[in-house]
Amino acid sequence: MTPDLHARHRAVLPDWLALYYDRPIEITHGEGRHVWDAAGNKYLDFFGGILTTMTAHALPEVTKAVSEQAGRIIHTSTLYLNRQMVELAERVASLSGIPDARVFFTTSGTEANDTALLLATAYRRSNQILAMRNSYHGRSFSAVGITGNRSWSPTSLSPLQTLYVHGGVRSRGPYAQLTDAQFIEACVDDLRDILGQTRGVAALIAEPIQGVGGFTSPPDGLYAAFREVLQEHGILWIADEVQTGWGRTGDHLWGWQAHAQNGPPDILTFAKGIGNGMSIGGVVARAEVMNCLDSNSISTFGGSPVTMAAGLANLIYLLEHDLQGNARRVGGLLIERLRAVGATTECVREVRGRGLMIGIELVKPGTDEADPDAAARVIEAAREGGLLVGKGGGHNTSVLRIAPPLTLTVAEAEEGAAVLERALHSAC
Ligand code: PLP
């Protein structure tokens, strides 16, 4: 990127608009798992945009679907019938696992979560929400308001009353030494304790694996155990699948399926990867919940035929090529390789994750103290080596986040791991 563009960026965009690298990169094009910057440098994209490039950059099937639809009409309104939207909704509904499902398309994960909160509070006639500590659900007033990681909240004002539950993170804190079964029991006790102090809670919202929170997974079955308690009170379970959806975790299409013993969530939200970079978000809920709103409403750009055409082509490719299976296989090899690398340096506290959603937590050598500066240095060094990786947000910037497109090959996984190995050794 030219310095000029960086200076112009600074002069006109908010200071708080996150921008990676001391000398930010201007990405001009991409193909497969690679992107190129304006200076012609090639990078292996281990962050998949920001978990948005689900299949591959410039996937011909998606590009063709977008350009063909854009050539016909870009957008009118969902006030008119829209074939692409109906077709994508049919597929999402049947894949969601939610019975009698209805789908509402939005333009972002934030808007999807706002809609889920609107539905839950309207259905339950309550503005009380349970959320997880260290969670992230988006940047609107209500999504920030319920987000457990308070970094984004300049005030504690929120239209919703939120109480925070243990369970999203277990590698630190009072529950760190517990077995899976003990951890689940302790979190369920915490949930029961909170519910004993409230009345009429609308919903619990949770990411099956916390994303911005540093790719922390609870033990399988935690949310099933929660759901049993929630059902005793008629409280809805909202699964925020914005990062975990569409096979990224390798074992399942959805993150909630690792917690499926007591049935699917009442509401599921998705975004990021479904459009392979086109702005699609959405909410799935059973008809009784979705239809509890009684005023007609639309999202002006939600369900736009161009984005829906992209989503359809992308989803078909993902399913036909079993990219969930690829995430499991290649992600499994990659995490093993990164664990071996982690064992050779004292600055890696933990390598964790599932499928192609892998976190590397960095600490000051010989201590348990999070080291965001080391993460920043490793990210810079990786970039010098031709590799893009992400990091956690808010209080979790000491965690490197790896989430490449799900078409990642074994050779590319090895190539990226080798760059990371060098970056960790040189920058820690
Ligand atoms: N929910 C989760 C779990 C997310 O990770 C994010 C974004 O990172 C959001 C919601 C908000 O999505 P968006 O940035 O598309 O509004």
From TrEMBL:
The organism's place on the tree of life at top rank: Bacteria
Keyword check for S-adenosyl-L-methionine: no
Swiss-Prot/TrEMBL keywords: Aminotransferase, Pyridoxal phosphate, Transferase
Named cofactor requirement(s): pyridoxal 5'-phosphate
Pfam entry (one): Aminotran_3
EC id: 2.6.1.44
Alphabetized GO MF terms: transaminase activity
Ion transport keyword on record: no
Complex formation: Homotetramer.
Similarity field: Belongs to the class-III pyridoxal-phosphate-dependent aminotransferase family.
Protein name, per record: alanine--glyoxylate transaminase
Species the sequence originates in: Streptomyces aureus
